Amino acid sequence: MNWLITTFASSIGKKLMMAVTGLSFCAFLTAHLIGNLTLYAGRDAFNSYAEHLHSLGPLITVAETGLLFFGIIHVLTGLFLFFQNIAARPARYEVNKNAGGRTIGSATMPYTGLILIAFITFHLINFHFIDKTGTTIFQIVRDAFAKPSYIAIYVMAVVTAAFHVSHGLWSAFQTLGINHPKYMPLIRKAGIAFSILIGIGFGFIPVFISLTT
Amino acid sequence: MTKTLNLTLKVWRQKGQNSKGSFETYNAKGISSDMSFLEMIDVINEQLTIDGIEPIAFDHDCREGICGMCGTVVNGRPHGPEKGTTLCQLHMRHFSDGDTIVVEPWRSRAFKVIKDLVVDRSALDKIIQAGGYISVNTGGAPDANAILVSQETAEKAMDAAACIGCGACVAACPNASAMLFTSAKISQLALLPQGKPEAAKRAMEMVRTMDGLGFGNCTNERECEAECPKEISIVNIARMNREFFKAAFLS
Which of A4, A20, A85 to mutate to test the interface with B (most CBs of B within 10 A)? Predict the structure, then answer.
């Protein structure tokens, strides 16, 4: 077991943990988005989707526990790396200029990440840890997005997630060693496309709900 | 056309490892646009010597971009604003009359400033030492092409071996990570048959040594490959990761 701890404690091991957990969140976002698209089909479609999802029972518990476990790993490792990287350059530069490698997404990873963890907590309080007796999930969503402040928070959070993912997705492939001259340009473009899809797909839901109800 | 430039330089001056440094401003008058950046510092140093001021200490050796000795951060860019060149290959024609140029040493916890712009890069030597040896039979000279290596693989190994160990990747990295350097050193041997027998041990040892020296972690910002004077690609970092995973999980 000692070798396993040494491996994951190394710089590349920590990268590996960030990549694997991050990729699993991308997969979760995809499933979450596909499910949420039923909102565009109206109240009954969304309520029946939620019902079907909850009828999976223990599978949902396993998925939730897994996501929570991965979330803790991702956040703790990310924070550890953030502080370790600051410590690696005790004297900062007088002039900072980029050579073109950095993107808005890559330069803001720790900050967008922290915003996201705050948002996810807020999001779970809104829709997960809420009293669901005598109401439907669609009703809860509609009530939430009746408040303009909620729409603003959700849209901004989704844009933040899009920036986070715009660096995260291709970065995970690079970390896993999947960098091939044939496929890397494609993976990079797919990362951008995925982040735009996440941004638009989730971002329009609150706007759509508030406009149609 | 040769032009004459008058420049203002803000240079980091630091007496020794434990003394506190600060920026000093110098005027560089009558600098020829044909001069290299290092020759410009030479001219300033001559004037400083005449004025009885300690000249600016800076690392340099071959002055033709192959030794890896020179390098400072010029206006926030390691080796200056030109792509694929070392500081000695940076010419003053890339600057305009009246420019203010800020010159700083490489900044990293693993690179201590020795004096002014000179930093201690022995941390990079320690990573190379941790790589150990490769296996080559002794005896008579082997026949040419006794071990077949494809042209493509040889080129990839050569691309990695082009690293001159100047430390610009560490200086450019927002996290002061040495992964591009380490990955180049791991790749040049891992790609060739002569480096295969010890590949696993080498990857483990070099990464462990790198981690222990106080470098930061790679977050795939890609600033290193953009600033590398030898234009070494982060493809090597992906290869190092593969080598490390193979070594950690399968060996």
Answer: A85
Rounded CA-CA distance B218/A16 in Å is 11
CB contact under 8 A, B211 and A92: no
- DSSP per-residue string spanning B160-172: HHT-----HHHHH
Hey, what amino acid is at A205? Answer: I
State whether A179 and B240 contact (CB < 8 Å). Answer: no
B241–A88: do the CB atoms touch at under 8 Å? no
Report the residue from A89, A100, A177 with minimal CB separation from B242. A177
Domains of chain B and any CATH numbers: 4-104 (3.10.20.30), 122-250 (1.10.1060.10)
Best A8, A11, A23 residue to mutate vs chain B (most B CBs within 10 Å): A11
Query: Residue B214: left if φ>0, alpha if ψ -120 to 50, beta else—which one?
Result: left
ipTM of the complex: 0.92
Span B119-155, pLDDT tens digits:
999 999 999 999 999 888 888 888 888 889 999 999 9
Chain A partners of B239 at a C-beta cutoff of 8 Å? Answer: 177, 179
In this predicted model, what pLDDT tens digit does every residue of B90-114 receive, in sequence order? 999 999 999 999 999 999 999 999 9
pTM of the predicted model as reported, rounded to 2 decimal places? 0.94
List, in order of start, the domains of chain A with CATH numbers.
15-88+104-212 (1.20.1300.10)
pLDDT tens by residue, A12-38: 999 999 999 999 999 999 999 999 999
Render the burial of A16-42: b for 16+ CB within 10 Å, e for the rest: bbbbebbbbbbeebeeeeeeeebbeee
